[in-house]
Structures are given as structure tokens and as C-alpha cells.
Amino acid sequence: MKSVAENGAIVKVALFAAFADIPYPGDGNIVVDQSVFDPECTEIVNAFTGMKWQDVSVKMVLQFKEALPLFTPAAFSFYLPAYMVACVEAYYDVDVALDSVLFNLTPPVSRSGWQWDFFQARVKGFSGPQVDATRSFLTLMNEYELADWASAGKVPPRERIGRAMDFWAQFPGRA
Question: Which of 21, 64, 119, 163 is spaced 20 to 30 Å from 79 by Cα?
């Protein structure tokens, strides 16, 4: 049986391989609100414009830990692997960035309405390898979570990662 650290190295390789060729969303397609009236979106645009996801550091993920919901679908799928890699590399140090990744990979309970449409717009174009890498990431995060709760003699709440794991286990991705 492999250790969590060994599994983490495998997941990182899978993420880099699966998302290697994903296209940059374009400078004007980073956040959903392009207006100058939203300082948070402006800050995200200034930080991420022109940046490859492979160059996003753990420090940057920590600084922009709550940016994922503000990305356009194209920017979300482009920068998501950077957030997943940061969670693998620094599980205990990414603060709520991990919560944001898990939340954004978990489908809404209702399979209709704007929340479902928003979620679907972000994940519908994932390729088979990207879906597989996302599944591996979620499995690894679940391993970390189980180990953390076990160290306290407890069992984690299933809804924390379970719904996301269920969705991605059945999500076919694009061939």
C-alpha cells in the first residue's frame, strides 16, 4: 500500500499531464465580472492575466484562495489544476483554498437552476484524462481527510468530499 505522500506525487504527475495542453482563457476572460467596480475581480485579473496555471505558486493560491467561483468557465478549468496541485503540495497550509476546490468540484444538490447550469458550464468540457486526474485528486484529499479524522479518533462527515467523489466517479468527461 502506497503512502499518502507517494499517492500525492502520482496525483501531481496526473494533474500536470492531464491539464498540460488546456488553452489559456484569454486576458479578457479571467473573471465573470469584468467591470472596474469589483475590486476583488480587478485584483484577480491583474494577478492572473497572462499567467500559465503551471506557474501559479502555492503562495499565490493562498493569496487568492477564494477566487475559483469568480473565474469564468474557461479560466476555472485553466487554473483549477494549479489549485489542486497546491492542495497536494501543501495540504495543511492552503487554508480555505482546499475548501474552495472541494466546493467547486461538488455539484449542487438540485440538478436544475442557475447553480447547476453554472457548475455544468465549468466542468462539461473536461477530457477523460482531466476527469481521471480530478478523481485521483479527490481520492487523495479523502485519504488525507480520513487520516486527519482518524488521528482524532473520529470519522469525517461524508458530505465533505463524498458528493464530489460520487459525481466525478460517474462523470464521463470528453473523449
Answer: 163
